[in-house]
């Protein structure tokens, strides 16, 4: 009776487990499946990185168009202070006003109709511009800021002259100014326009966080990055010619600033976005 049982047990043991061939086949299949999965993961990862680069290049381009482009297009040709392949400097108004009346030697009351205190100009450099009454041509005194103070008397004077007919201006927009004769030689007359301005500089420099890339900086702070090396400013002149650099004597002849660059992504896997951005000065 015991022998048949032992034979049955031995028979069971012979049918349990895998053969070497089966194990090898399973390992090969698992390896193939793992390879396919790994290739899929790598492909998805590269696809994600390429999309990330494309989004970043688009964001860089949009930042240049919406920020730098708006500020340079808002300037006039006589606001241009320097023009080199890697640097553009312009006068940026932080205050615009109209002269309501001359009230004494070198003293005038003004009505401020536009003030931009949040221009984030890091440079302390300032200047004052003045036009003739109802004129558009300005005389600039770089490095000089007219003295001014909020004045109730100036408010009465300006309102009597017709300023702020809608009654929306705040008292701080009416100011008495002095010191005109010292730099401008005369007191401005009623109807003259004046500006207080600062110096705004856009420059192309090596990116601080992106090795091998460059960045556009606004007054020293990184504004748009990364760009491929070789980005540069160009300048179209009144005669239609294009220059890489403009000497000070010819700055007033520049009618357009152009940025030529390639926006890239941090991963360097996406398509390069070519930028030829034309920024004409206002008339």
Structural write-up:
With 283 residues, this protein is α+β, with helices and mostly antiparallel strands. It has four helices and 14 strands. The protein has helices spanning 2-15, 20-73, 152-160, 180-184, and strands at 80-84, 87-104, 107-115, 126-131, 138-142, 147-150, 174-178, 193-206, 214-218, 221-227, 232-237, 242-243, 254-263, 273-280. Strands 1, 2, 3, 4, 5, 6, 7, 8, 9 and 10 form a ten-stranded antiparallel β-sheet that branches. A four-stranded antiparallel β-sheet has the order 12-11-13-14, covered by helices on one side. It is elongated. It starts with a helix and ends with a strand. 28% of the residues are buried.
What keywords describe this structure?
283 residues, alpha+beta, 10-stranded antiparallel beta sheet, 4-stranded antiparallel beta sheet, 14 strands, 29% helix, 37% strand, elongated
Overall pLDDT, averaged?
A: 86
Task: State the order of secondary-structure elements, H for helix, E for strand.
Answer: HHEEEEEEHEHEEEEEEE
Number of helices: 4
Kindly report how far apart the N and C termini lie: 116 Å
Residues in helices, as a percent range:
25-40%
Radius of gyration: 35 Å
Q: Name the poorly predicted regions.
A: none
Major beta sheet summary:
10 strands, antiparallel
Structural class: alpha+beta
Question: What portion of the residues fall into strands of 2 or more residues?
Answer: 35-45%
Total strand count, please? 14
Shape summary: elongated
């Amino acid at each position: 009776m015991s022998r048949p049982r032992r034979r049955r047990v031995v028979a069971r043991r012979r049918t349990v487990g895998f053969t070497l061939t089966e194990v090898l086949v399973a390992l090969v299949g698992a390896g193939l499946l793992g390879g396919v999965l790994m290739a899929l993961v790598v492909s998805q990862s590269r696809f994600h990185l390429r999309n990330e680069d494309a989004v970043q290049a688009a964001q860089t381009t949009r930042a240049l168009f919406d920020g730098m482009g708006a500020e340079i297009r808002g300037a006039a040709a006589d606001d241009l202070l320097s023009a080199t392949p890697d640097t553009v400097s312009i006068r940026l108004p932080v205050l615009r006003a109209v002269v309501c009346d001359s009230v004494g030697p070198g003293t005038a009351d003004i009505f401020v109709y536009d003030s931009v205190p949040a221009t984030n100009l890091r440079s302390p450099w300032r200047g004052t511009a003045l036009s003739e009454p109802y004129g558009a041509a300005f005389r600039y005194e770089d490095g000089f800021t007219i003295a001014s103070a909020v004045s109730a008397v100036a408010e009465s004077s300006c309102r009597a002259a017709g300023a702020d007919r809608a009654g929306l201006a705040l008292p701080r927009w009416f100011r008495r100014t002095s010191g005109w004769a010292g730099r401008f030689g005369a007191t401005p007359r009623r109807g003259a326009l004046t500006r207080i301005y600062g110096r705004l500089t856009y420059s192309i420099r090596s990116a601080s966080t992106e090795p091998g890339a460059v960045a556009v900086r606004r007054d020293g702070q990184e504004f748009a990055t990364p760009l491929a090396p070789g980005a540069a400013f160009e300048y179209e002149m009144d005669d239609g010619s294009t220059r890489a650099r403009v000497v000070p004597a010819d700055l007033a002849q520049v009618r357009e600033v152009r940025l030529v660059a390639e926006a890239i992504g941090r991963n360097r896997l996406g398509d390069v976005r070519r930028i030829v951005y034309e920024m004409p000065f206002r008339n």
